[in-house]
Amino acid sequence: MNTKVVVAILSLFLISATLTEGVSLARMGSELRCQCTRTHSGLIPPQNIQGVKLTQSGPHCKNVEIIATLKDGREVCLDPTAKWVKIIIKALLSKAQANNGSQL
């Protein structure tokens, strides 16, 4: 095989591998950081909340993050130290434990 052809094929392979890894690293970099830059501590009526996602602190972020999805589709980062947020999280955890216990 011609040396120039081999060099061209290897070059294309290296470029392809570099681009693929670059995309993977960029995606991983966006997942390994805090999602909440600001938190909302004002009361949001529970009937306006569709769902809540709780993310524990870890290597991706030093903060506990609580993200509420509102019924209008917006996502709001809640202040985990706010009293009303603690009450809602406690109620959700109790409800989840009750549902898991009834399935046993």
Question: What's the layout of helices and strands?
Answer:
Layout (H helix, E strand, L loop, with lengths): L2 H29 L17 E7 L9 E6 L4 E4 L4 H20 L2
Antiparallel strand pairs: 1-2, 2-3
Note down, in words, how this protein is organized.
It is a single chain. The chain contains two helices and three strands. By secondary structure, the protein is an alpha+beta fold. Strands 1-2-3 form a three-stranded antiparallel β-sheet, with no helix packed on it. The chain is elongated, with a radius of gyration of 23 Å. The termini are far apart. The model is unreliable at 23-30 (pLDDT under 50). Keywords: Cytokine, Secreted, Signal. It is found in: Secreted.
N/C terminus separation:
66 Å
Strand order of the largest sheet: 1-2-3
SS class: alpha+beta
Mean pLDDT across all residues, rounded?
A: 78
Attribute tags:
104 residues, alpha+beta, 3-stranded antiparallel β-sheet
Q: How would you summarize what this structure contains?
A:
Residues 31-92 form the Chemokine interleukin-8-like domain. Helix content is 47%, strand content 16%.
